[in-house]
Amino acid sequence: MAIETAQETHFSRLHFDPIRFLQQIVTIDSCDPPGNEIEVAKLVHAELLALGIEAELDEFLPGRANVLSRIRGTGEKPALLFSSHMDTVPVGTAPWRLPPFSGEIAQGRLYGRGSTDMKSALAAMIAAAGNLADKRETLKGDLILAFTAGESSNLLGARRFAEQGIKEEIGAFLCGEPSDLDIIIVEKAALWLRATAMGRLGHVSGEPGINAIDAIHSFLTRLYSLELDCPPHPLLDGPTIRVGRIEGGSAINLTPDRCAVDIDIRLPPGVDHLAVVTRVENIAPEDVVIRILDFKPAVESLPDESFVKLCSDVCTRHRMRKPEIKGVSYYSDGAILLEGLSVPFAIIGPGDLGLSGQPDESVSVDNVLKAVEIYQDVAAAWLS
Question: Are 282 and 290 in contact (CB under 8 A)?
């Protein structure tokens, strides 16, 4: 583990251009797996220090790093936390019109993996913090920037921050996941399961064995017919069940003696995920074993929450229209950092909903610049 820390400095601050910086970090491959966010983290850390902002780089696993930054207020109010991640989903196999790590700007949009999800928010949050650094004496609470590794898969970085006690400081939570600069106040829970069937090796010339793939096929047929009775939510669609990965067999001419399938189930708030696991176990054949890989709880704020109203007012002012209040199926670092807490939560991001993980991922340059102003004004108002 490597940790670097620097206290606030008073040297002349460099001008920070969020679009230039976004282009720079989009050119860095930080797809998870394997992540390797360290190169992005080093640039983020250096820029924050250059802006005169306290920052810490924590390489907690080889190549996996968080950056924690803070503008200290007077301590009269709890901290506001800006949340963003430095990893991206993989590029995929579909062709791209532009190279996926180009950072090229065309027709007002910046292209590349992570441009929407969510390096654009990362750049905008740094710019907003830089603008607030000169006004820190007006802040009654700390502004914390928590930039993580491994959000796209298992929330490695958020779990690391939780271990370090960051949760205890959070008074409000603003996340930069894609939202089209609308306001998201609820995200689904994510339940990840693995179903494993054990068969017996066989061959067509002798003992046929027991086909583990056939057992999984039978299980999946039942799974796709499973009705999960969840209460309706005004901002969310119903629960979803999707297979994300499957593996089985060792050779085409051998009966497979093992097959495993990984399942992603998304649930609205208030649903007992262990009851869902039991439902899945009850439909599984005897030779299929179910185990939990991970559970990420749902996160929700109420529309009339004062923090949500403030975010709406600020977005309205900068966009010249009232933002929509939405819910999403994706999860964020809030699933870990807000678990067990009762603090206001909102997602406002410059990225486009629906572009995460797509070929030709891009973000509106204008949205990124608007996000800087929105983040800055929300922080200044909430911490005033």
Answer: no
Q: Is the distance from CB of 139 to CB of 73 less than 8 angstroms?
A: yes
With b for 16 or more beta-carbon neighbours within 10 A and e for fewer, the 180-211 pattern comes to bbbbbbbbbbbbbbebbbebeebeeeeeebbb
CA distance 48 to 156: 22
Residue span(s) of the chain under CATH 3.40.630.10 come to 2-187+299-382
How are the residues of the chain apportioned to helix, strand and coil, as percentages rounded to the nearest 5? 30, 30, 40
Give the tens place of pLDDT for each residue, 166-184. Answer: 999 999 999 999 999 999 9
Whether 99 contacts 54, CB under 8 Å:
no
Residue 46's identity, in one-letter code, is: A
SS3 78: coil
The fraction of the chain above a pLDDT of 90, given in percent, is: 93
Q: Of 3.30.70.100, 3.40.605.10, 3.30.70.360, 2.60.40.1190, which CATH number belongs to 189-296?
A: 3.30.70.360
C-alpha 309/C-alpha 375 separation (Å) is 14
Res 285: pLDDT: 93
- SS3 (DSSP) at 27: coil
Closest of 58, 124, 119 to residue 132, by C-alpha: 124
Q: Say which amino acid occupies 166.
A: I
Percent of the chain with pLDDT over 70: 96
Q: Which CATH class is domain 2-187+299-382?
A: alpha beta
CB 307 within 8 A of CB 207: no
